[in-house]
Design goal:
With about 200 residues, the protein is mainly α. The chain has nine helices and no strands. It has one domain: Glycolipid transfer protein (Glycolipid transfer protein, GLTP, Orthogonal Bundle). The N and C termini lie far apart (about 35 Å).
């Protein structure tokens, strides 16, 4: 568990912003920096301070681990996420590819929830997360998992408490200046990964 006595974006466990993940002209995403950005995203669950979010955190962390394992097994074939997927599938395996599919859904969920909440200052986190869950992960979950995740959404902290936790003594305008590019970077990555994971290149 990360030390939450410091602001989220200054936390030693925050290794990489999504805004700083290299993406080339063909929209190929650098695997190593993507993994670091996703590991940094997981830290935000410590600031949510809701044990009910443990299944959500576990789901995202587990899928990051699958991608990291494949990257370390075959770094030369996995420099970008697209290469990792294509080369894993050539080897008749799909553990990391399936992990990336679920991780993409999880990242889309986090982006939609935090973007909506950041945009609407009167909306509580529980509303933003519930709406985002319905749009992203829920259609892919079975009955029992839906109940677990849906219950977790109701345990979000109050909006003001969450942003105080994330920013600590950071001035609101400074926190916003950190949050905006992070969310924009996450949006760009999700926008690339969703169609790629739906393409024939990512089918097993």
């Amino acid at each position: 568990m990360a030390d939450t006595s410091v602001p989220y974006f200054e936390n030693p466990a925050f290794k990489k912003s999504f805004a700083d993940v290299p993406i080339d002209a063909s929209n190929n995403i650098s695997t190593q920096e993507f993994i670091q950005a996703c590991e940094s995203l997981v830290v935000i669950f410590d600031y949510l301070k809701a044990s009910a979010f443990a299944p959500v955190r576990s789901d995202i962390s587990g899928n990051v681990t699958k991608i990291d394992t494949r990257f370390k097994e075959a770094p030369a074939e996995s420099a970008t996420l697209q290469d990792l997927v294509k080369n894993e599938l050539k080897n008749k395996k799909h553990t990391a590819t399936e992990g990336l599919l679920w991780l993409t859904r999880g990242l889309d969920f986090m982006y939609q929830a935090l973007h909506a909440n950041n945009k609407n200052s009167s909306e509580e986190l529980s509303v933003s997360f519930t709406n985002a869950y319905g749009e992203t992960l829920k259609p892919h979950h079975g009955f029992i998992v839906k109940k677990v995740f849906s219950a977790a959404m109701g345990f979000c902290p109050k909006r003001n408490d969450f942003y105080k936790e994330v920013g600590k003594d950071t001035p609101p305008e400074t926190l916003q200046a950190q949050l905006d590019p992070w969310l924009a970077g996450l949006e760009k990555i999700v926008g690339i990964l969703k169609p790629f994971m739906d393409s024939k290149d990512a089918k097993w």
